[in-house]
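User: Hi! I have a protein structure encoded as tokens and I'd like to know what sequence might fold into it. I'm fairly new to this, so please keep things simple.
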């Protein structure tokens, strides 16, 4: 009888079937292999790359906004500079005329005419 029990294959229980289906024993911790370490490293690198990309995007956006503000301020400054230069040119013409013996013209000819009347 002992020979008979040894010859019959043991029936697989549900745990054995589950292990066969999964290709590993779920009750034991998984083995850390080079493949597992490689995959973990790859995920870490991807996360770091995403973080670096987000930081770079933020910095680039800020740099672009600053460049736009600079251009706006530069244009406004140049506009004001041209106005001041034009105004200075008027005074220089009056000053040169005065140096050459002409009487300076009043700033507001209408106000001068009202005062004379």
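Assistant: Happy to help. Inverse folding works backwards from shape to sequence: for each of the 117 positions I chose a residue that suits the local structure. Here it is:
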């Amino acid at each position: 009888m002992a020979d008979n029990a040894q010859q019959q294959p043991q029936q697989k229980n549900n745990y054995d079937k589950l292990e066969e289906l999964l290709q590993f024993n779920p009750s034991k911790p998984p083995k850390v292999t080079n493949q597992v370490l490689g995959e973990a490293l790859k995920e870490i690198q991807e996360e770091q790359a995403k973080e670096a990309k987000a930081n770079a995007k933020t910095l680039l956006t800020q740099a672009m906004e600053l460049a736009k503000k600079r251009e706006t301020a530069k244009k406004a400054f140049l506009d004001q500079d041209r106005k001041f230069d034009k105004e200075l040119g008027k005074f220089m013409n009056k000053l040169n005329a005065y140096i050459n013996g002409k009487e300076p013209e009043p700033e507001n000819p209408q106000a001068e005419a009202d005062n004379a009347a």
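A useful reference point when you look it over: Residues 13-103 form one domain. Feel free to ask if any position seems puzzling.
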